[in-house]
Amino acid sequence: MRVAFAITRRLWQEGKKAVTGSHGKILELLWDFSGRVRKRSMAEEQSVQFGPYRLDPANARLWQGTQPLRLTPKAFQVLCFLAARPGQLVSKDELFQVVWAETIISEATLTSAIQEIRKALQDNGPGAAVCGDCT
Description:
Blueprint: H1 2-15, H2 21-44, E1 48-50, E2 53-56, E3 61-64, E4 67-69, H3 73-83, H4 92-99, H5 107-120
Antiparallel strand pairs: 1-2, 2-3, 3-4
Helix pairs in contact: 1-2, 3-5
């Protein structure tokens, strides 16, 4: 992915003045798109603090204080997606599309990932408000 951005940037720098017409428009759109993708991924890689927990997407780690907590990669992706949207309603379909984009899975797979997250966060049910505010 970085190579594609580097190529796009280089083409843009070399051809910005010389290229006109539809090819120039395509390069312009590619450059605009690559900037948006980079901005989004950088924002998603920032640490998120909630309660005694810290989610570190850049290093694929969940911490409770100084102790790392174990999550499978898919459960970690689910937690990152949810933590990036505090207070928002997230549908199962959204999670399926983002976390399991190219895979057909059952709802049991998502349920298992959620159970794994709740276990790691020691969230014992509806009365436990571990995942309240994310900052």
